Each structure stands twice: as C-alpha cells, then as structure tokens.
Amino acid sequence: MAARVLLKLWAPVCWNNTRRNSGQAAGYCVELVRKRDYEGFLCTLLLPQESQNSVFALRAFNVELSQVKDSVSQKNLGLIRMQFWRDTVQDIYKDNPPHHPVALALSQAVQKHQLTKRWLTRMIDAREQNLDDRTYRNIQDLEAYAENTHSSLLYLILETLGIKDVHADHAASHIGKANGIITCLRAVPYNSSRRQVFLPIDICMLHGVSQEDFIRGSLEKNVRDVIFDIAGQAHVHLEHARSFKKRVQKSAFPAFNITVALDWHLKTLRKADFNIFHPSVQRRNTLLPLSLYARSWKQSY
C-alpha cells in the first residue's frame, strides 16, 4: 500500500516533467525502467531533478543490455544486438545517435554531463562476454563481472551528479559488486528452473554442492551454506563502501541509495535461513519507497 501511495505522488510528476522537457525518448526510458528495474526506478526518483532524465537513460541502457541474453535463442543473435549498442555508443559520441528512444535519451545525457565513454563500452563488453552461459570459476570472476556492469553504472550516475572523487568511486565499486552478487543470488530460482546454475564453482565445491542440487531445489544445509558464503561477500562489500562514508561528499550519497534495497535482500535471506528458494526471497519489498525516503532524509547510505 505504501508503495502504491508514494508512486502516485512521484510517478506522474516524473513522467510529466520528462515528457515536457526531453520528449518521448526520455518518457520511453522512464517507463522501461519502471517495468524492468523497479528498484532502480524508485532510486532514480530521489535523485536531483537535473539528473533524473539522464539516469533514467543510463538505467534504460542497462536494461536493454541485460535483456539481450534472455531474449535471443542463439548467441549470434545476441552478438548482433550487442554490436548495435556498441555502434550506437560510437555514434552518440559523434553526435549522430540512431533513432532509437534509449539511444536518443542516452545521447542527451552524454552531451549534458560529458559522460565517460569507457564505462558505457565496458558495460557492453561484459554483457557480451556473459552470453556464453559460463559458470563463474570463483567469487572473483563474479565480482569482476559486477564491477564491469553494476559499478560502471554507478560511476556514470556519479558523473550526472557532478561527482569526480576517488573516495566516491571506491564506494561505488564496492556497492556495484554487492549489487552484482545479490542479483546473481536472486536469479538462482529462475536459472535453476531452466537447468542453469551460475554460482561460483569454488564455493560450491567447498561445500560439496553440485549444480543438480540447485536444479532440484535442494534445501540441505550445504546448499544454504553456499548461499551464506556468497551473500556474506556482498555484505563485506557494503561494509567496505560504508567505511568511506566520512570521506565521501554528501552530494554523492543519492547515487548510492540502491543500498537500501540490497540491505533488505540480505536481511530477507537471513530470515529465510539462506534458503534461496523461499517465497519471501522473491517477494517485492512494498516498503521500499518509504525506506528510500527515510534513508535520503538521513543523508546516509
């Protein structure tokens, strides 16, 4: 109920401003993010008004990339779509974006904030390499993927806020890694239903857990121990990010409000005794809008 009430207050304002100021391309991005990245949508609504449209464009770009893997039946088709986005980024920096709503909105964001090109291309490269359906050999492989995707997005969001600070970048790196790890965990039930498991092999081997254990939805302690270890690494990254808090300028804090959602996911896992298949783990946090607002009011992350 709280989520619905706050969205009625926030969403129309954001949508109307977007349509009026940046046209249909930006409006398309808002709607895409609302449908496909609900947590990112709510987080973006709490950013300064002058950054919102740009961040919606960045998050829409991230959604487009993340959807490629599940929307194609063959790797070659995925490679074609990734090449489209690689060419699109090149064209954007030549001030000649294609007539695609996300590309047009992203071009406006690049021009407005002088966004760093390599973060965009790094996101594409990482998603493209992930088309192979390879299991992570170890937790470091998963962290590297999270750094290249989720952390890169945070670096760009910081740039829309005018933040260029090494301490903020360090915090963004750790938060992005935590986000990537938690996203991987949240995807376990879906991937297992498709007979796919992408959890780090080294941690599974440490606890004597096979891919088949996850595919059949085992609730054994060793399976939960795998989840505990991986979730623990996400928690470590969040704690590292917060260790920089006194050195990060407060104007950067809004870029990190995704930590509210990450904290909730880890708390929910703990309550479920690290049973990744428990229904509560997949449930949407209806109190997230209120929690986000409270955290932003406290000026913390």
From TrEMBL:
<keyword id="KW-0809">Transit peptide</keyword>
<dbReference type="GO" id="GO:0032981">
    <property type="term" value="P:mitochondrial respiratory chain complex I assembly"/>
</dbReference>
<dbReference type="InterPro" id="IPR002060">
    <property type="entry name" value="Squ/phyt_synthse"/>
</dbReference>
<dbReference type="InterPro" id="IPR008949">
    <property type="entry name" value="Isoprenoid_synthase_dom_sf"/>
</dbReference>
<keyword id="KW-0125">Carotenoid biosynthesis</keyword>
<keyword id="KW-0472">Membrane</keyword>
<dbReference type="GO" id="GO:0005739">
    <property type="term" value="C:mitochondrion"/>
</dbReference>
<keyword id="KW-0999">Mitochondrion inner membrane</keyword>
<keyword id="KW-0496">Mitochondrion</keyword>
<dbReference type="GO" id="GO:0016117">
    <property type="term" value="P:carotenoid biosynthetic process"/>
</dbReference>
<dbReference type="GO" id="GO:0005743">
    <property type="term" value="C:mitochondrial inner membrane"/>
</dbReference>
<dbReference type="Pfam" id="PF00494">
    <property type="entry name" value="SQS_PSY"/>
</dbReference>
<comment type="similarity">
    <text>Belongs to the NDUFAF6 family.</text>
</comment>
<comment type="function">
    <text>Involved in the assembly of mitochondrial NADH:ubiquinone oxidoreductase complex (complex I) at early stages. May play a role in the biogenesis of complex I subunit MT-ND1.</text>
</comment>
<protein>
    <recommendedName>
        <fullName>NADH dehydrogenase (ubiquinone) complex I, assembly factor 6</fullName>
        <ecNumber>2.5.1.32</ecNumber>
    </recommendedName>
</protein>
